[in-house]
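pinned: reference chain
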Amino acid sequence: MTKITSKDNSLVKHINKLNKSVKYRRECKEFVAEGIRLCGDALISGAEISSLIVCEDILEKYSDIIKKISEASDNSYVFPKALFKNISDTKNPQGILCVIKTLDKHYLFDKMKSNGKFLALENIQDPSNMGTILRTAEAVGIDGVILSSDCCDIYSPKVVRGSMGAVFRLPYIIKESIADFISENKNITSYASVVDSDADKITRIKFDRPCVVAVGNEGNGLKSSTIEVCNKKITIPMNGRAESLNASTAAAIIIWEMVK
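pinned: its structure tokens
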């Protein structure tokens, strides 16, 4: 493993830019996964690891997993503690991160499109919401996720951490708009999740394959153009005083109803 000690090193600058810039991540087609569990998930999931960076303080503590990840990485580096903190995106760094090449999940998605249950996310802006939704979707058993191009970046550090590794495993595609995806896939029964007393209650819906449920922006919900192209409108019945649920909570309920 190569030791790096200078904050002016090109790798240090590269990782910091990957952490901070959506544009840079897309240009480089790389992203950062930080933490023992996430780096281990990347290895198990077969992600292509460009670089492994380890803080010298943890070399002995996690020697087994570090060795395995290092063998699968193109390059491996050791940083002193102060320098590792410089590239970390967390308050309490665990001392390990990987630079990973962005994942092509389109081929997986297309294979199951004729017989899957999908979640469509439109203009989701909060990385924490996005990460939680992806984690729930994988855990409960959604076949894949469609993201509109105006969603927050699926490879942002907060999304990657919040997904708890789901970003490595869950098939997804990014479309210019959810309305485009639905219009192009008439064989998939589509549902618009809305806050509307005239919509069908989700608890009464039988979600046959293939189907897709669209969930909208945290504050504004789905775009009218998306609602219009969906086959049906559905809503989550609520008996309390709350008028709506946050996006990740609503998505969790929807996902559960889709696959139960």
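why pinned: The two ends are 48 Å apart (CA to CA). Residues 106-259 form a domain with the Alpha/beta knot fold (CATH 3.40.1280.10).
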